[in-house]
Amino acid sequence: MTERRRAGEEEVRAWAELVGAARRTVTDGLVVGTSGNVSVRVGETVLVTPSGVPYDRLTPDDVTGVDLTGRQVLGTLVPTSELPMHLAVYRTTGARAVVHTHAVHATAVSTLVDELPLIHYMAAALGGPVRVARYATYGTDELAGNMLRALDGRTGCLLQNHGTVTHGTTLDQAYDRTAQLEWMCRLWLTASSLPALSPSLLTPEQLAEVGERLRDYGQRG
Length: 221
Known about the structure:
Blueprint: H1 9-27, E1 37-42, E2 45-48, E3 65-67, E4 72-74, H2 83-92, E5 97-101, H3 104-110, E6 132-133, H4 141-151, E7 156-159, E8 163-168, H5 171-192, H6 204-214
Parallel strand pairs: 6-7
Antiparallel strand pairs: 1-2, 1-5, 2-3, 3-4, 5-8, 7-8
């Protein structure tokens, strides 16, 4: 059996934030039950929600962590079955947090198109038009590979007949991107539902202009 260590102070704080975000996915209607998962990277350790445990039952003693190879180094609970997706993001990007949900509107859109139409300029906050990763069985390396192709140059994507994945430099940022993605999907489905009418869409040039403006968005310092 692999020897496991005690969580450090930074990992304890990160775990508390992770559990809070996981519970919020339920409250905000982005997942049902124990579906979806959340992870945070602290140094070379990835803290991740465990498999099949209701988020409201998680305690500080349930901290679950793996290294970048997937070897468990913290806790005794089995990590999420979607661990290959989370690790694939951390190995290939500078992400420090990943949020995966089964959000209803986003999942619905994933069954209809190969790319979310440019219904709103906030697509620029995800790096551009949001792609749909080809379907593969959950928890597989195949799904992780499909996800990485859809994420190329992006910070979020849809998983066909499955849900969403977003990442960020902070957990708050990753979560906000998930919420924005679900909102854009709901917007497109709503606008597309009226008979004999089609929603206006942005052009790539318009989206690129927004992308430039977003570079200076928010407070300085």
